[in-house]
Design goal:
The complex is a heterodimer. By secondary structure, chain A is α+β, with helices and mostly antiparallel strands. Chain A is about 30% helix and about 40% strand. Chain A has 4 helices and 9 strands. In chain A, the strands form 2 sheets. In chain A, strands 5, 6, 7, 8 and 9 form a 5-stranded antiparallel sheet that branches. Chain A has a 4-stranded antiparallel sheet with strand order 2-3-1-4, with helices on one face. In chain A, strand 2 and strand 3 form a beta hairpin. Chain A starts with a strand and ends in an 8-residue tail after the last strand. By secondary structure, chain B is an alpha/beta fold. Chain B has 24 helices and 20 strands. In chain B, strand 2, helix 2 and strand 3 form a beta-alpha-beta unit. Chain B is globular. The mean pLDDT of chain B is about 95. The chains are: A alpha+beta, B alpha/beta. At the A-B interface, helix 1 and helix 2 of A face loops of B. The structure holds thiamine diphosphate and magnesium ion. The site of magnesium ion has 8 residues of chain B, from helix 19.
Amino acid sequence: MKHIISLLMENEAGALSRVAGLFSARGYNIESLTVAPTEDATLSRMTIVTSGSDDVIEQIIKQLNKLVDVVKVLDLNDGRHIERELMLVKVKATGALRDEMKRISDIFRGRIIDVADGSYTIELTGSGSKLDAFLEALDKTVILETVRTGASGIGRGDRILKV
Amino acid sequence: MDQSNQQKVGQISGAEIIMRCLHEEKVKFVFGYPGGAVLHIYDALFKQKDFKHILVRHEQAAVHAADAFSRATGEVGVALVTSGPGATNAVTGIATAYMDSIPMVVISGQVPTAAIGMDAFQEVDMVGVTRPCVKHNFLIKDVRDIAMTMKKAFYIAASGRPGPVVVDIPKDITAEFAEYNYPKSVEMRSYTPVIKGHSGQIKKAVKILLDAKRPMIYSGGGLVLGDASNELVKLARTLGYPVTNTLMGLGGYPATDKQNLGMLGMHGTYEANNAMQECDVLLAVGARFDDRVIGNPEHFLSVPRTIIHIDVDPSSISKRVKVDVPIVGHVQSVLSEMNELLASESKKPDASALKSWWARIDDWRTKKSLSYDDSSTSIIKPQYVIEKLWEVTKGDAYVTSDVGQHQMWAAQYYKFDKPRRWINSGGLGTMGVGLPYAMGCQLADPKAQVACVTGEGSIQMNIQELSTCKQFHLPIKVILLNNRYLGMVRQWQEFFYENRYSESYMDSLPDFVKLAESYGHVGMDIEKPADVEGALKEAFAMKDRFVFMNFLTDQKENVFPMIPNGKGLSEMILGSDPNKDDAANEIEG
Ligand SMILES: Cc1ncc(C[n+]2csc(CCOP(=O)(O)OP(=O)(O)O)c2C)c(N)n1
Ligand SMILES: [Mg+2]
């Protein structure tokens, strides 16, 4: 099953490589991994999307906790949470396609953020599956380029990951 | 601009700060090898008298010797190497210590800060290279961080589940100046090892133990590292339950005690492995159910039993085998608490169930799974050498070993009654550790008898240390079980590759006696069973000499019992089985 794991770690050089190294050394999946500093400059927050059986996820959490730089780990799937990802898609926009692309973008609440002679760049946020659905709705031949940030996640209500 | 390269009043150099930190940590020995990136450090080392530097002949040996010093004493071992090749030479030693959770601090030199990333002479990304085989590592970027980093390194290495920590220090930083303040203690919000176990879980465990009909206690390296031997002995004696030790746990429970069933695992005894398989309650203490211990996990789990697992590392629990009562905590603290509970408990173990369980165990014991054919008067059996070694040293030596058949024979036939006496590479299985391990033990306990049980393959992997042993007058006794084969490889080829001995014959061996003599040591060739005991006595009587004993042993001898790869604990091949070699083939086929 897919899990979203959030963690706080000391904002030290090489911290990212410790996490990435752990996943590759132990053969765990990484679907996506995002990292950035938090409002507390000494901490980085990471969101890892991974998948595996319950036993594997339990080991992943334990192994992450074992890293000396890791301060806190939370499996967001243990409770209610929100997942958001940002995607930029450059699509062909010539002739009839110009209206068509605008219409699909609107349906998915995307925003056209760059307009050129033959193309639009659409910005879209949402859960990973919403972004997937958007790409599926497009004819493959109109997609010129895509870039996704990977998911960020946060617990709902008073589920808070903080030191 | 940073003015730290001009000395101000009250400031000392980075190299001197390192010396002060080592002094503060009460370090007695630093095992090392100099080079360009650590010249400032070696200059500071020259001027101090707090610890002794042991100059090895290869950095791998420095790390192994520091590792063994720690295994023998429980203190943090310290090694010092230069950048680049010095650092990479140290990696095998670091990985070896990591796999066996040995607390160690390895200081490596690094090219100057400004040269990092420039493919400078003798540059290697040590933090990157060692990341998968250290508990933690640091690259120091500011002279003012040295003291705090060293404090953290020692703290991290020794606490929780111990392990090696690498501190990589660029050369320029060791020459810059700063004030020295060694922190009294460290607190790290990201690192807070658990000590006390959950008392509810401990109560539950005691209750389950008292309800057991066929109980078994299985202890590993964690018990030895956690210095909890006395607590385990107390627990096991109070309950009257059988105990088995892993390869890493030998000596954790006295081998000559009647409740000890011997080692378990791939080359464990018939009684230990069968009792593991058939018990209804298993107490695992500082052990991790690894593949060489329980064989095929599916086979192990095919019978129901309740498992209680005490370990300081939560990630060791339910990693390979799902456990029923996990207790995360320091083994010594948890076992003491269990002993207290038992003392105040009116309930006693089920005596009649226990009696029939012991009867069953005694029945397994009659198989005498460690018996071997000792009828030859012309060929020395390796097992016999170890039995005599045990007698001659009165069971009180530090025994280090290399990796191979000789390692298994040493583990099976030397009866360790004390922890921290059996020093070997269990997790990584590193050939070449034996001699440097013996150096670390002899320095830790200069008056003690230290035996290095080795093979002619393994000893040649760090043979250069004969020179270090001479320089530091280490009266080690090398027990070379010379079978002219990479015996363990040959055994597997015999069993699983129809005797195709691919590259496992050790040709062109040196004359070991002459080799030892050329380094200024005593050498002995022993070729007949009748000479074994006398030679051992003679060697150990030379209390101040290093003696290299070359025993020409049976080339064909194999290690039994053996659980073939992928098989279960009760599917052993025994040495007494007349079809043992065919049995092995059949099982593989
Ligand atoms: C560094 C290293 N290389 C290879 C091996 C694989 N290996 C395990 S046992 C063994 C044979 C060891 O031969 P020897 O030291 O003569 O001991 P014996 O088995 O003959 O007692 C080998 C090659 C290893 N464990 N370590
Ligand atoms: Mg050999």
